[in-house]
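Recap from last week: sequence in, structure out.
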Amino acid sequence: MISLIATLLIGAGVNKAASDEKKVIRISTDSTDLLLQVGDNGRLYQTYLGPKLLHEADTREFDWSRHAATDGAVSRRGWEAYATSGNEDFFEPALGMTHADGNMTTYLYYVDSSSEPVDGGIHTRISLRDNKYPLDVTLNYMAYPKENVIKTWSEISHHEKKPVSLWQYASGMLYFDKGEYWLTEFSGDWAKEAGMSSQQLQFGKKVIDTKLGSRAAMHASPFFEVGLDGPVKEHSGEVLMGTIGWTGNFRFTFEIDNVGNLRVIPGINPYASAYKLDADETFTTPEFIFTLSYDGTSQGSRDLQAWARRYGLKDGDAPRLTLLNNWENTGFKFDENILSGLMKEARQLGVDMFLLDDGWFGNKYPRRNDRAGLGDWEATRDKLPGGIPALVDSARNAGVKFGIWIEPEMVNPKSELYEKHPDWVIEQPDRDTYYYRNQLVLDMSNPKVQDHVFGVVDDILTKNPDVAYFKWDCNSPITNIYSPYQKGNQGNLYIDHVRGIYNVLKRIKEKYPDVPMMLCSGGGARCDYEALKYFTEFWCSDNTDPVERAYIQWGFSQFFPSKAMAAHVTGWNKKTTVKFRTDMASMCRLGFDIGLEKLSPDELAYCRDAVANWKRLSPAIMDGTQYRLVSPYDTNHMAVEYVDGTGNTAVVFAYDLATRFSEKLQRVKLQGLDSAKRYLVKEINLMPGTETRFPQDGKILTGDYLMKIGLDLLSSRQKTSMVVELTAQ
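Predicted structure tokens:
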């Protein structure tokens, strides 16, 4: 059997399989091992994924066949590292393709592998090849030892005489053998993003996917958690936490087989995307980023957040700008004088920047509402006669930076751009057009459209080099799905559209590396780590009601650091105080979207003090270690702590959301402090003229006491908040 397979492999140019029989490939972090092994059939299998093994010899004690034939199958099957369609595996494959001759089967055999250190991690490449067709697949694994994070993606190429059709192309596969599996997914809609819900997985498949194309994560977020041997918990238990870096249609498949094993398959959603791949081209899948935590999601989040600040987020080690936005205050109704006044308010508030939102562009079709002008990126002359240069000057005179809103991937049919280039738009011929928010999506798979979109940003920055920030929006999913550019290759549209967006973003980053940008999509419908290579932060939700934000920000914090999450203080939910709204927003990149004339003198004084405190404590809030202490999903309260890198400063945000009559209140035990240090405990962000009700205010307590006994941070009041600063003495 072995010699026959070896002969076949040699005939296909795979001449190392025999000598590499039982070869073990170890992909490791400081906490986790992923072991892959070449079987005696020359194919590659996962043999272990779990806590790191301390002894190298132990990694060779696993045998790929321990997962084979346990179901009484006639043929042996194991946990193939990148399972393919058409072979003896009866469950969901990672790779499915139709070869040029119509054959739909693929077998991949091990060729070779290599590892090298790259940018803080270890990059392992594993080459696989079909023994009958000139098809190559490279599996890539990037392990970050300190952060306990692993990325995996695949590269698919061929040398067949005609194009092949890819209809399944996962980023990787992971297997687990546990007694039970519990999935926590993150879903919702506009204004209720990243809602958390859990269920136990049973035999068969559970699929989380999206088919929206551009505003892809509007209903389902591109991340998940799987509790292994029990439900997902915050501070205990083994949990897989995974997210995909793809700003388009994605799919997560969770399949439990006939013997109770789980396979997890992340990747691009192949819906309507049978991809035509030409010879000598390479299809690269998105990066799947995961961590395996053995102490619940809190530790897993800290690992992912630390990784993101170092490697996953544009300018992850740089400070963030506080800002005043005009949208909630003015909507479309503004002019130069109104904006100049708001810039002075920004300075008065103490923030770094004024951000001009939607409504500043269009002349033949002025942008007076969302039905016209989108695509015509020239300042409206009767509204802004001095254009962007006058606004930049006004901001400079006010002592703040100037940022601006754009939505360059979209177009209103009522626009000069649509009149000139209807062939640039994704729109079906000979059918009635369906408009989402009165707009259509530009075909980013078209290189001419890519040049246009890059030109929107390039033109603004060339003429106005002092523009300091972009808010990049994307309000519509793809509708009327047809690309004039793709013609007979419509199955390539969804994928090449996203790749076209990346082409533009790469050009912008190369030419303007120091310009920060916010990733927005009608709220939080774009929130993935591939896009965040080009954006400093994302807008979590258009919903700025602080009570709702507690749940939204809790959900997003599972996978993102606070400096990647933008939050603004607005007038949403006027039944809450300005203090409560500001304290909630202060847990993220802080901004305001409210007119100062609507604030009382005390509220304005409070906001200015809160901005100053946020800036002073940014080393903890933006760059420190996060500890989620009290969950709004489990209680009527929420508490989150940030500790700076020295362990000398910590900040705790605590909220009473919807307390019950005579509810028993527990002290909140802190985490991450130095047990031997003594900390001054002080409530900050107090409204002028009010005195603290905090029993431990002004006391000096040891880290040991704070972590074992805790603080009285919660109350029986409704919708109140407390911010406490701890300083080592």
